[in-house]
């Protein structure tokens, strides 16, 4: 991923106002909205979500084994890199050293390498897929007046590399534990940077009166490719927000400090209640270039599914032109 930043001035504005699934543009016709499922504010309270869980991308297991060994952590090491160096699945290495914080490895501390895998030439036998640790709290679901259920949640990336192509599977359950509805959903946000999160939503044609809870599982995810590494998250300053006719509106100035011209991709506005549940979000597609050291002003709005106080996060994604 790139670098967030700011310098010279070049300003243009994008305005988006969302009412349910409709969007109007007052200042930038080149920024066309995506189609959204119908969203209507309801008086009933949202369901509580179970505690967050940590989901691991499945790994294939190497066919050969050897005895455990030890390794002394060096400057610049990451747990993911050590796992690859010894041909050990990431989650196996992490479980064998449960006291370690993967984001702050202690230099000169010896850790155990369980069953390192090498071929006859001494080359590590790597897993066929790269592990990625993602935090997946259960989604929060809301009733819709059209005999449907809207569920929204978020995915957090807790590793040292950006993640892309995340696909989730959401299931709705009745009170007796039987399946009410299920469906697959991908993220509208292209890449989740390290330490960041991204929202998702899925609409089910199901009866709210039968609904009891929702669970989410990971279908697939990838460490970001070299092409995705050209993506940059523009830095944001001067954020202001206000409520107007049921809209939560955010105005902000973005600064390009990527040392290169960038092409704007999308802005993601996420609304959360006091418990951290997502109550609404909006993905605004962007279309335009922003020169090095230039600025852009945007306005973006979303509708919350609850009437209580909410906070927001704003993420803007762009890709380097060279």
Structure commentary:
By secondary structure, the protein is mainly beta. It has three domains: 13-42 and 228-320, Immunoglobulin-like (Sandwich); 60-113, Membrane-bound Lytic Murein Transglycosylase D, Chain A (Roll), CATH 3.10.350.10; 133-223, Immunoglobulin-like (Sandwich). Helix content is 4%, strand content 45%. The chain has two helices and 21 strands. The protein has helices at residues 79-85, 90-96, and strands at residues 13-15, 17-19, 22-24, 53-56, 69-72, 110-113, 133-136, 140-144, 148-157, 163-173, 179-186, 191-192, 197-204, 213-223, 231-233, 235-244, 247-255, 262-272, 278-290, 295-302, 311-320. Strands 4, 7, 8, 9 and 13 form a five-stranded antiparallel β-sheet that branches. Strands 1-20-17-16 form a four-stranded mixed β-sheet, with no helix packed on it. Strands 10, 11, 12 and 14 form a four-stranded antiparallel β-sheet that branches. Strand 10 (163-173) and strand 11 (179-186) form a beta hairpin. The longest helix has 7 residues, at 79-85. The radius of gyration is 22 Å and the shape is globular. Mean pLDDT is 76; it is low at 1-65 and 127-132.
Quickly list its features.
322 residues; mainly beta; Immunoglobulin-like; Membrane-bound Lytic Murein Transglycosylase D, Chain A; 5-stranded antiparallel β-sheet; globular; disordered N terminus
User: Portion of residues in helices?
Assistant: under 10%
Residue stretches low in confidence (pLDDT < 50, at least 5 long) are 1-65, 127-132
Which architecture of the largest domain per CATH? Sandwich
CATH class of the largest domain: Mainly Beta
Number of domains: 3
First-residue to last-residue Cα separation: 14 Å
Overall shape = globular
What is the CATH topology of the largest domain?
Answer: Immunoglobulin-like
CA radius of gyration is 22 Å
Instruction: Note the run of SSEs as H and E.
Output: EEEEEHHEEEEEEEEEEEEEEEE
Number of continuous helical runs:
2
The counted number of beta strands is 21
Helical/strand content category: mainly beta
> Averaged pLDDT, please?
76
Beta-strand percentage?
35-45%
